Amino acid sequence: LREYDVGGLTGLNEVEIKDRYPEVWHALHHSPEWPAIPGEEGGHAFHQRVVSVLDDIRSNHDQDGSVAVVSHGRTLSKMLAQLLGLDHDRRMMFRFGNTSL
């Protein structure tokens, strides 16, 4: 389960983002809404990808069994929001620390 594709920001550090995309950098730090990023995956496509994976997990595993999901923070946040029936258009609702279980 790969992370959300941030398009033009991929591989850039904080300083490079601020230099190349100052309006995006500002929005990422000061706005509750996710800004438009050149070449990004897009919220709808990301949501559909996550829902598709959840559907596959549900259809291929026993309802009474356990399934381990390993992924990135934003993807896990989107999955958890979907499972709980929360608004999928909102920015990350849940935060997961690096290497968290």
Could you explain how this protein is built, in words?
This protein has one domain. Helix 1 (14-20) crosses helix 2 and helix 3 (43-60) packs across helix 4. By secondary structure, it is mainly alpha-helical. The chain has helices at residues 14-20, 22-30, 43-60, 73-83.
Could you say which overall geometry the principal axes of the C-alpha atoms support?
elongated
Distance N to C terminus:
15 Å
Order of SSEs: HHHH
* Strand composition percent: under 5%
Q: List the domain count as a whole number.
A: 1
Please give the oligomerization state of what you see. single chain
Please report the number of helical segments.
4
Care to count the β-strands? 0
Report the average pLDDT across residues.
88
Helix content: 40-55%
Which sheet architecture does the biggest sheet show?
none
Taking pLDDT < 50 over at least 5 consecutive residues as the criterion, the unreliable ranges are none
Structural class: mainly alpha
State Rg: 15 Å
Topology:
Elements: H1 14-20, H2 22-30, H3 43-60, H4 73-83
Helix pairs in contact: 1-2, 3-4
